[in-house]
């Protein structure tokens, strides 16, 4: 069983204090900041291997943080690591010239994802969303983008709105108003955004009926992964696809988290929906920064002659392409996803059983290797449900108890637990044993 002995993390505390002198907030991403849940300081990492990470104080954890998703193969996967080492030692990294391996990668992505006819690489999910929305506006000749309250599509000015706004300043439940993530976003950008509640098809139908001629795209995650884990209600994505298609609106799936994680064909294959454009990132690179935007040939061809410009010095660099090629080869191995789902379901169903027996008002929501625990007496279907009904204090106690026992995931209820292909039945059994202990203290 995972140890419940107190874990001192003095080295992390000291490293954080030192880092704050030279790095604003002491970290390089908001998800690692103290105000995202890492109070009074984040853990500093020493190393990772497979399903485990070791912190700066030498404590080892079973890791369900997984870098917020990219480490689908676990830490330091041999095939990916060797591919990158070979690329650096024998080929090189950045040439500002194309290489054959780029087309090899494109063909693998196209073969894996049925909706994609052509694909263009980028460096990050943020870039991918920027490219996809630009393509949609160019293709349709329209300027507005529908996006959903509580989703995160990167930090570019055009979409970094209404991620987790204060409800009292965000308009009505059915017609939210755009709320900037913070100061510094230029005024006027919000005029090109329509913010809607997730999982409400009637509101989407009304807006498309009234304003469809202005809307270039509906931008959505196929399941919400940035306000915890929220699944689409039955028929929701199907109706979204039908409405957008009839109105000449492009449907963009942000599969930065779900792509190559829920399956080789992404969430769109699992749900049976064909979007016009898709963005992939985290799972694509096996831990290295690489992203891709792909979709219908007629849309993607706008890039071919420079009508729409997508550029970047580090785009399709040798390291990224080598890592992605090796990652997809691993993911395409026979039985890979069956094994991943087996271990993931062992965790999810095990947690469901523990909470059901505890009497706590809790729901374990997820699909395959993405899941989260909602401490709520009712189902959570959208961001405002989460804000009003999820018990954040109880989640904090749950997280503290689990990390004390060597089980690592993000301290924020609006993040997720991720499972990798490196996790074993033993990892899951240790996790469930820890969960039983912690839940007993919460009930």
TrEMBL record:
EC number(s) stated in the UniProt entry for this protein: 5.4.3.8
Gene Ontology molecular function: glutamate-1-semialdehyde 2,1-aminomutase activity; pyridoxal phosphate binding; transaminase activity
EC supergroup of this enzyme: isomerase
Domain of life: Bacteria
Required cofactor names: pyridoxal 5'-phosphate
Keywords annotated in UniProt: Isomerase, Porphyrin biosynthesis, Pyridoxal phosphate
CDD domains per record: OAT_like
PROSITE patterns: AA_TRANSFER_CLASS_3
Known pathway: Porphyrin-containing compound metabolism; protoporphyrin-IX biosynthesis; 5-aminolevulinate from L-glutamyl-tRNA(Glu): step 2/2
GO biological process, one term: porphyrin-containing compound biosynthetic process
Annotated Gene3D superfamilies: Aspartate Aminotransferase, domain 1 (3.90.1150.10), Type I PLP-dependent aspartate aminotransferase-like (Major domain) (3.40.640.10)
Homology family: Belongs to the class-III pyridoxal-phosphate-dependent aminotransferase family. HemL subfamily.
Name of the protein in question: Glutamate-1-semialdehyde 2,1-aminomutase
Organism: Aureimonas ureilytica
